[in-house]
Amino acid sequence: MIALRHFMDAVATVLDLGLNIYMWLIIARALLSWVNPDPYNPIVRFLYNVTEPLLSWLRRRVPVVFGGLDLSPLIIIAVIMFLRIFLVQTLHDYARMMG
Question: Which helix (H) or strand (E) holds 69?
């Protein structure tokens, strides 16, 4: 039972870290969109390749352009924050209840 408790706690911690990193990648992508970056820069290409699949998926399903402003990064960040508050904390609490 102790091993399962530590496993659940580790899953919650890794999930929290992954969501936090992805949130910062979305923020960096949004900030770069304001300055017209070089599309051949490896960092810009990495940010685009990592964030565009989720952003384009959201844009296809929900009209998130408001007055020419793309709100999809804001919606993704809100979903990530919800997952960090609800899912990660629930996993941590579940792990604590096991021990």
Answer: strand 69-70
Helices (H), the chain: 2-32, 42-61, 72-83, 89-98
In 3D space, the residue among 17, 13, 18 whose CA is nearest the CA of residue 96 turns out to be 13
- pLDDT tens for each residue of 80-97: 999 999 999 999 999 999
Structural domains in the chain (count) = 1
- The pTM is what? 0.89
Token pair, residue 51, equals: 């964030």
Q: Which domain holds residue 93?
A: 2-98
Residue type for 9, please? Answer: D
Taking 50 as the pLDDT cut, the residues of the chain under it are none
